[in-house]
Amino acid sequence: MVRAPIPDLASGERRLEGAVAHYLARVLRLGAGDAFVGFDPVRSLEASAVVVKTDPDGMTVRFEDAREAAARGPRAVTWIQGLAKGDKCDAVVRDATELGATRIVVAQTERSVVRLDAARASARQARWTRIAQEAARQCGRSDAPAVEPFCAWTEAIAGVEPAEGARFCLWERATEPVGPALFEAIARGGPLAFACGPEGGLETGEVERWMDHRLVGRADAADRDSRGSGARCRTRDGRRDRAVKSR
């Protein structure tokens, strides 16, 4: 079934223009009488819809009553990404969405080569939000992750809620695989949080600040783009520490 992100989804007729209308009418060539599913990426709702008519500037569609989305992230998953060069953050946002992230934060780190002023940061956030919504549509999710405003590393860390769950900081100097700690955290349930540096990885002080930010449970691991990566890990009850790596 064709799917499209529809902000403020509600029953009744509605005029669609812009990128969504272009995708439905021009790319997929939907016409009067064709059906699709609209989903609200913020409120996790979806509704069956039918095209009433199309015109050169857009289309009119009719939505049925909105219902709770069938495909949603099963748990809260935060991904904190150090600002990287080029379009690498675009790919991270896309992949994180497809893997179930519910919240994405791109942060300035000491090794981030790119520097964003307020205007560029706002434009990037808007772009990453669109990418997240499109990735949600493509993978069948009816909710898209919230893409938070660009911020400093310390601010991104402080935004992780102190709730039960596990944290993984992906760092290139850890020594053990992340797998066992991650599987254990998934089996326990609860939210997950991941943090990853840019191309050059994270400074030791940034990893230490991550570990000093206390949660009920935490686990830290390695730069996902490095083969010999890892960091320190603590189980939810805090009974043990060990080093882990992502591969």
What does this structure look like?
The protein is of the alpha/beta class and 247 residues long. The chain has two domains: 3-68, Hypothetical PUA domain-like, domain 1 (Ribosomal Protein L25, Chain P); 77-244, Alpha/beta knot (3-Layer(aba) Sandwich), CATH 3.40.1280.10. It has six helices and 15 strands. The protein has helices spanning 18-27, 88-98, 118-139, 153-158, 179-188, 204-212, and strands spanning 3-5, 12-16, 35-40, 45-55, 58-63, 67-68, 77-82, 103-108, 146-147, 151-152, 166-170, 192-196, 218-219, 231-234, 241-244. The strands form three sheets. Strands 1, 2, 3, 4, 5 and 6 form a six-stranded mixed β-sheet that branches. Helix 2 runs parallel beside helix 3. It is elongated and about 60 Å long. The model is unreliable at 214-247 (pLDDT under 50).
Summarize this entry quickly:
This protein has 247 residues and is of the alpha/beta class.
